[in-house]
Amino acid sequence: MKKNTVEESSWDYADLSKRAKEAGGPEALTDTIYEAGRNAGRIEGAVDVAGVVAALYGMYKLFKITAPKIKKGVERLRKHWGKEAITPDELEDAKQQLIQGIEDYDAVNSTVEEN
């Protein structure tokens, strides 16, 4: 870390003192600096918010595109299975069976690979 000499630090305070007088005093200067930082933060915040809004809009549009396709797929599955509707319990059972099948496969293959 660079250490300032007495002359350098005196000059910094001299410049600050001059700026404070121009701003209407030390409190006015610090208020001005604070407000400038706050306004800069607002701009950055607005950019962040705009990014979030754009991402949400993109997700919304993606949902609008994919939701009808998902609905058609579910309808085809219902017709294929000869049922009018898939109950939440049936869906959860299918999910658990799939998870268990993957875990069983991984368990068998990890022991085979270890040997």
Map the helices and strands:
Layout: H1 6-23, H2 26-81, H3 88-114
Helix pairs in contact: 1-2
Ranges with pLDDT <50 over ≥5 residues? none
Report the order of strands and helices: HHH
- Biggest sheet details: none
Number of helices: 3
Q: Termini distance? A: 57 Å
What helical percentage do the residues reach? over 70%
| Shape descriptor | elongated
Our estimate of the beta-strand percent is under 5%
Number of β-strand runs: 0
User: Taking Cα atoms only, what radius of gyration do you get, to the nearest Å?
Assistant: 33 Å
- Average pLDDT score: 77
Structural class per helix/strand content? mainly alpha
Question: Keywords, please?
Answer:
mainly alpha, 3 helices
Q: How is this structure best described in words?
A:
The protein is an all-alpha fold. Helix content is 88%, strand content 0%. Helix 1 (6-23) packs across helix 2. The radius of gyration is 33 Å and the shape is elongated. The relative contact order is 0.03.
Structure in a nutshell:
The protein is mainly alpha-helical and 115 residues long.
